[in-house]
Amino acid sequence: MELTNSFDVARSIDETWAVLTDVERIAPCLPGAQLQEIDGDEYRGIVKVKVGPITAQYKGAASFAQKDDDAHKAVLDAKGRDTRGAGNAEAVITAQLEAVDGGTTRVDVFTDLKVTGKVAQFGRGVMADVSAKLMGQFADNLHDMLAQEGVDDGGSDVGGDAAAPAADTTAGEAAEEPSGPRRIDAPEVEAV
Fold first, then answer.
1. Under a CB-based contact definition with an 8 Å cutoff, are residues 88 and 120 in contact?
2. Where are the alpha helices (DSSP H) in 93-161?
3. What angle do CA 46, 186, 66 make, to 5 degrees?
4. Using CA atoms, how far apart are residues 4 and 112, in angstroms rounded to an integer?
5. Spatial distance between the Cα atoms of 96 and 105, rounded to a whole number of angstroms
6. β-pairing, 104-115 with 88-101?
7. Which residues are bridge partners to 60 per DSSP?
């Protein structure tokens, strides 16, 4: 099923592009998503979603299939398996950025979603509503994150969540797994 969503970001197109292509930085903005580790160009984690009475938790991986810095277009390929064995989800997510004016960027998100299992029983209308709700929450969370970073003059990048995993890895795992996946210490998320 194909889903289309859009939102605006109160930043220039280059600033917005830098933020949206930094998966570790924006993962906490996506409701129900928890980034658990990064292995090279692959991002692994879980996504918890509640659709009607059904809650699904997908564990999987995502990576950029395409990232065009000049055209400000990215394609993310994501696949996950329900942790209870009740289905799978695959998505090809294409984000296209467009400068609205010097300080605002329009982000159009096109998702080709394939879901099997219990969640698949809900039709396109319900899935589109859930998608729109998630994208709205993501845009609000992104706005809040950028506003906080603006207040602390970018201090969140240096002293926030990104610094904690590096400290953990350096202290313990670096000697044992210098080229293995880097674990991300993120709080557990609630299904949305």
1. no
2. 124-151, 155-159
3. 55
4. 9
5. 10
6. antiparallel
7. 45, 80
Q: How many CB atoms lie within 10 A of CB 167?
A: 10
Rounded alpha-carbon distances, angstroms, from residue 33 to 44, 78, 102? 10, 12, 31
Q: What is the 3 state secondary structure string of 154-178? A: CHHHHHCCCHHHHHHHHHHHCCCCC
Which tens digits make up the pLDDT trace of 52-110? 788 889 999 999 999 999 999 999 999 999 999 889 999 999 999 999 987 899 999 99
- Model pTM score: 0.75
Closest CA to 71 of 24, 149, 112, 14: 14
Q: Whole-angstrom Cα distance, residue 59 to residue 101? A: 38
pLDDT digits (tens, 9 = 90+) for 17-50: 999 999 999 999 999 999 999 999 999 999 998 8
End-to-end CA distance of the chain: 20
Rounded distance between C-alpha atoms, residue 6 and residue 105, angstroms: 11
Helix, strand, coil shares, percent, the chain, to 5: 35, 40, 25
Residue with tokens 């950025």: 97
3-state secondary structure of 58: strand
Spatial distance between the Cα atoms of 37 and 59, rounded to a whole number of angstroms: 12
